[in-house]
Amino acid sequence: MTLLAMRDVACRRGGRMLFTGLDLTLAPGDAVVVTGPNGVGKSSLIRMAAGLLRPAAGSVAAAPAALLDERAALDAELPLDRALRFWVEVDGSIPAEAGVQMGSGGMGLESHPPVIPAQAGIHRAAGADASSRAEALIPAFAGATKRKGEVALAPGRIVERGLAALDLTPLARVPVRLLSTGQRRRAALARVAVSPARLWLLDEPANGLDAAAVARLEALVAAHRAAGGAVLVATHLPLAIPGAEALALEAAA
User: Fold this and answer.
1) Cα(235)–Cα(37) distance, rounded to whole angstroms?
2) Which residues belong to any copy of the ABC transporter domain (predicted)?
3) How far is the C-alpha of 24 from the C-alpha of 201, rounded, in Å?
4) d(C-alpha 27, C-alpha 77), whole Å
5) Counting runs of H as helices and runs of E as strands, what totals does the chain give?
């Protein structure tokens, strides 16, 4: 099964072509790390994969995805645990078969997951080894994402897992608006962690995180991939994601 397939994709923003001819495929267990200078289209690529931005050319097919971008997408007035629970209940009402099918002419929901042959254009990163601190945390986070064949958990239990995975349990009853910048970023990551989506789309996930939180992020990504998920990450900061493919975006000529 393919969770994300982008074929011959081009991106134009503000009358300027950012990139063209991009081919990218993600299957269960895969990870792709997108790098490049500011303004080259990293965030736009994430938004296209999420179905929020139409490509100037080419096509995008994607399974349901959990998106992390600059917006926390959490109700600022609610306590953190209730804000997360809202999304757990919303996510639980979305059919697992739903997905996005999009081309330069339009977009819509699919009735089945896309199954598309792998495309060329992604190159394996050399020397990508997990830090020992992230490796040590992986077993603790293996339960933060739903495993294949796992019995569905109650929403409250799912929220507890997400909070624990990002060391947010002591802040469960704190209104989101009172969280610090770093805490809000971890809360946004918890929002991704509690999603049942197998495809994670992470735009600059390490921004605002200290070293301990980055290690938790790396461990979460590893656990998600081990459970059959896939991850597309856009970042300008180094992340230890073993076996990830590297996609360096360059400005279109």
Assistant:
1) 10
2) 4-251
3) 13
4) 37
5) 6, 11
Distance CA 50, CA 67 (A): 7
Q: Helix, strand, coil proportions of the chain in percent (round to 5)?
A: 30, 25, 45
Tokens of 32: 């792709």
Query: Residue 70's pLDDT is what?
Result: 80
pLDDT for 100 beyond 90: no
Q: Determine contact, residues 129/242, Cβ cutoff 8 Å.
A: yes
Alpha helical stretches, state H, the chain: 42-49, 80-92, 132-141, 155-165, 181-193, 211-226
Residue 116 main-chain phi, psi, to 5 deg: -130, 140
- Report the CATH number of the 4-248 domain: 3.40.50.300
- Determine the pLDDT at residue 93: 58
Q: What angle do CA 29, 33, 36 make, to 5 degrees?
A: 165
Mean pLDDT of 33-45: 93
Does residue 240 contact residue 125 with C-beta atoms inside 8 Å? no
Q: Which residues pair with 203 in a beta bridge?
A: 234
Residue 53 CA to residue 93 CA, distance in Å, equals 24
Q: How far apart are the C-alpha atoms of 204 and 42, rounded to whole Å?
A: 9
Query: Does the pLDDT at position 24 exceed 70?
Result: yes
Matching residue, tokens 């603790």: 140
Domain ranges of the chain: 4-248
The model carries a pTM of 0.80
